[in-house]
Amino acid sequence: MITCFIRYEIDPFRKDDFAAYARNWGEAIPRCGADLIGYFGPHEGSATIGYGVYNIESLAAYEAYRARLAADPLGRENYEFARRERFILKEDRIFLRNVSLPQGKE
User: Fold this and answer.
1) Would you tell me the crossing angle of helices 59-71 and 73-85 to the nearest 10 degrees?
2) Domain around 20
3) Rounded Cα–Cα distance for residues 38 and 20 (Å)
4) Could you give the CA distance from residue 92 to residue 101 in angstroms, rounded to a whole number?
5) DSSP letters along 29-77, please?
6) What separation in angstroms does the CA of 20 have from each of 36, 41, 44, 77?
7) pLDDT at residue number 101
8) Number of other residues whose CB lies within 10 A of the CB of residue 69
9) What is the C-alpha to C-alpha distance for residues 64 and 18, in angstroms, rounded to an integer?
10) How do residues 9-68 score in pLDDT, each as one tens digit?
11) Is residue 105 part of a domain?
């Protein structure tokens, strides 16, 4: 199992748009095969950083998941919403493996 961490730099005046975007992924991501931990938007401190976090079996499973997400009607709509409204200024994605699990639990 690997975990995908997506770090978003968002327009501080468009936090509500990011929240709507996150809610849409809350439906589409699990439907397309990833274990969504959640999307996190600004609350205190920085007004420009948000995160999306989900688990997926492997990088190969990730590639298949991304294809399903791109074909999903809500997924396509959400990608278009972000492109059209431009509230996401930057997006970085990293994959990490939980190395603190007790042995035999991976």
Assistant:
1) 80
2) 2-96
3) 13
4) 25
5) HHHTT-EEEEEE---SS-SSEEEEEEEES-HHHHHHHHHHHHHSHHHHH
6) 16, 11, 19, 12
7) 76
8) 20
9) 25
10) 999 999 999 999 999 999 999 999 999 999 999 998 889 999 999 999 999 999 999 999
11) no
Please choose, from the candidates 103, 102, 98, 91, the residue with its C-alpha nearest in 3D space to the C-alpha of residue 1: 98
> Is the separation of the CB atoms in 27 and 75 below 8 Å?
no
What would the two tokens of residue 20 be? 């709507």
* Six-digit token string for 82: 């972000």
> Does 78 fall in a domain?
yes
Q: Compute the distance between CA of residue 1 and CA of residue 12 in angstroms, rounded to an integer.
A: 33
Q: Domain of 31: which CATH number?
A: 3.30.70.100
**Residue that the structure tokens 């095969």 belong to:** 33
14-19 contacts, C-beta under 8 A, 24 or more apart: 14/85, 14/87, 15/41, 15/42, 15/47, 17/81, 17/85, 17/87, 18/50, 18/87, 18/88
Residue 79 forms part of a structural domain = yes
